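[stage:ingest] chain + small molecule (S-adenosylmethionine)
[stage:ingest] validated
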Amino acid sequence: MSSPVLNQAARILKLVQTGTPADQALRESLTQDRHFTDPAGRRAVSRAVFVYFRWWRWLDPKDSLQKQTEAALTLQERFDKNPASFKAEALAARAVPDWLKTEMDLPADLLRQFQRDPALWIRTMSGKGESVASRLGNCTPAVLPAFRFQLSAFRYSGLKDLYRTPEFQGGEFEIQDLASQLVGHACAPQPGEIWWDACAGEGGKTMHLSDLLQGKGMVWASDRSARRLAKLKLRAARAKAFNYRIAEWDGSANLPTKTKFDGILVDAPCSGVGTWQRNPHARWTTQPQDVQELAVVQANLLNHVAGALKPGGHLIYSVCTLTRAETTAIADAFTAAHPEFEPVSPDPKSQTPSPVTLWPHDLNANGMFIAAWRRR
Ligand SMILES: C[S@@+](CC[C@H](N)C(=O)[O-])C[C@H]1O[C@@H](n2cnc3c(N)ncnc32)[C@H](O)[C@@H]1O
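[stage:predict] done
[stage:export] tokens:
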């Protein structure tokens, strides 16, 4: 590895040590550094930083950050050549924090997946899949035999900076993880329906719902963060999506509207363990108490939105995490407390169980948990 890349990675790691999250430190440093204006250089630095956090517990903290990063890259190369040479016990002990094993199962395949470079997924707008894929090149359609969804997901393995392509700027595709796309499909909004994306954030799933509605119907997008909702508006403008409305909501019982919905999506804040392949720094900043605190928020969000659903309407709960407290425990408690809600499969046309856990090693994507109910 060239020393400019190692030096730049070390500068970013120093910033992270002062409390800046790795993805933010990368964004800030790489936009300011005139030595890394080309996409290949930026990619090499980002990868070096992520590889460092993936192999962090194998490294010697007495070494310089440059030397540690170089050692991490060597470990990554060894792993990529022969993943089985890393025993599951060693990965369980070092690739994830100790507290995780009390919160969830840790299959060897998951731990190995966490140590790989993540795949990049795009979601093309309805009817544009083939055309966008052939113009971008290096796109492989997702094939998921377990589901009956009409997917518009492609894995991109090329070297273009996708954000700068005319197809992205013209709103023909979004960069969206495959597991997140499956949440939109589990909602399966029908043209003409009114949906509520209750934790819309920057609108990744709002935009998918809007597309699936084919412009007929409406998505209410709420979040407690006005800053995130402002980004949603920019995204919607790029996607030329108009069938949405924004409403700030703090998650309390005081709902933003009296409207009754055909469907509600609660894509709740969570510990994000399912994203630890893509964002390995989060392995070392997430705390077990986050899991307990977020589980309370998740249960409250579901209880608060439940009354806003029409009879026959669908409620979808999703989290990009895999801990029991935030997944099955939340779904079981909601089902027990709400006999008026019947659990249904997130993909009724297939044999998909309800709820469903999407594992990173099965999808080559983020981990995700999806539960669905129909109001009787
Ligand atoms: C998983 S993110 C949503 C991601 C988004 N749905 C997407 O696909 O891009 C969870 C969101 O919940 C919001 N949130 C956190 N706590 C909340 C609360 N108590 N009430 C409402 N929203 C909350 C956060 O601001 C965050 O945007």
